[in-house]
Known about the structure:
Blueprint: E1 2-3, E2 6-8, E3 11-13, E4 20-23, E5 30-34, H1 41-57, H2 61-77, H3 79-90, H4 94-116, E6 124-125, E7 130-131, E8 138-146, E9 151-154, H5 162-174, E10 178-181, H6 187-200, E11 208-210, E12 227-231, H7 234-241, H8 244-249, E13 252-256, E14 262-265, H9 274-288, E15 300-304, H10 308-320, H11 340-353, E16 357-361, E17 383-387, E18 405-411, H12 415-423, E19 431-434, H13 438-448, E20 455-458, E21 477-480, E22 487-490, E23 500-508, H14 509-515
Parallel strand pairs: 1-5, 9-10, 9-12, 10-11, 12-13, 14-15, 14-19, 15-18, 17-18, 19-20
Antiparallel strand pairs: 2-3, 4-5, 6-8, 7-8, 8-23, 16-17, 21-22
Amino acid sequence: xxxxxxxxxxxxxxxxxxxxxxxxxxxxxxxxxxxxxxxxxxxxxxxxxxxxxxxxxxxxxxxxxxxxxxxxxxxxxxxxxxxxxxxxxxxxxxxxxxxxxxxxxxxxxxxxxxxxxxxxxxxxxxxxxxxxxxxxxxxxxxxxxxxxxxxxxxxxxxxxxxxxxxxxxxxxxxxxxxxxxxxxxxxxxxxxxxxxxxxxxxxxxxxxxxxxxxxxxxxxxxxxxxxxxxxxxxxxxxxxxxxxxxxxxxxxxxxxxxxxxxxxxxxxxxxxxxxxxxxxxxxxxxxxxxxxxxxxxxxxxxxxxxxxxxxxxxxxxxxxxxxxxxxxxxxxxxxxxxxxxxxxxxxxxxxxxxxxxxxxxxxxxxxxxxxxxxxxxxxxxxxxxxxxxxxxxxxxxxxxxxxxxxxxxxxxxxxxxxxxxxxxxxxxxxxxxxxxxxxxxxxxxxxxxxxxxxxxxxxxxxxxxxxxxxxxxxxxxxxxxxxxxxxxxxxxxxxxxxxxxxxxxxxxxxxxxxxxxxxx
Length: 520
């Protein structure tokens, strides 16, 4: 049986006790085991703070960018192997595995290009310099300097590659060493990525470490120069945010938590139009891709009341064509949920949604998967609900079922009504709005734009170029307010700010600019 290893304090550590099993979500067979028993977490932090930080501190921004390029190259060279491993460890289809792996390497490559454009500069600069005296000689610059601690990244199970890559890309380019902790259930894929990067010699010692298993007392040792970035449930996020040592030292914490993302169909969109087609395609994909196990998946479908029946018919037709089963079967288009707990949560979650809504597609229960032995595997088919007339919608607007489940919600057709329904989720990572009416978009933004981390607008003119609302592109922000965690990741250079301290430097303008690399 495969035993996953930890990459810490400059060594490879394999535990000899305290193991947690990793289970194939199709066969339900134990395929690996993981433990961090015996890891010296204090030593791991100190090694990263000293060796890792020293290595990055001596590099220009362009040289750090080269590290990201080496990581992306190493992972891409093992793409086929990682896809095959993902099928077994996560239950993803080949298409969904590629989505994860290619998303990770693309994000690393994007930040490589961003860093290369800054070349030999040592520091990031925030805005233009300002004159402070009678002449420009006495001036001020706002420089952005890397914190001297460690970036600890705790990632979710659904994207074992993309999840660690997007966080690591920003931290390493900013100049902070990383300790990453993948979710246990899908840690084999992440651990193999770390092994590939380690074998390729892509990074200096201490720059990138990995803990597979429990983090022990690691988080209890974080201080004012460290960063914690977490993706996962809101309940776990609250516990992490509330740790006494981090509150006392004002440790920077970035959270990405639950999100009841919405797809909104505007009243101007007619059935059969190109924008209608984009809406139906996007929503069907966002319900089923990665078996609905995406932080950006559509959980609420907000539709004008007079269009509700037509939208329901169109989505049912699309979702009924999805084949749920073992990804090794060529006919399968959606795999199982990743763990038994995810299956149980989905079943209970649909029961909760039924307080407000009726199931119009699916069973709300486990099903047998195509190409898999009967009674085995954590399969759950596409499930569509419709909110009942007169229902308050408390469950629909407060509970996320992390699976291929979404609910149709009617509204009055006005932009204000749509925005009010969208805001009912308490804050989203992404809301997708389908309209060709600029006034509707303006009124929606005015009425409820502040509840969104990202607003994806689907319209006829850009239909051929749209990637889908669920794609977190490195050029733009990924994060959201309220129940979505209140955090921000990616967004080009904005994604580095979590790891940088803004320092106002005042004095001789020429001297400061030479030190900052702004002037020869």
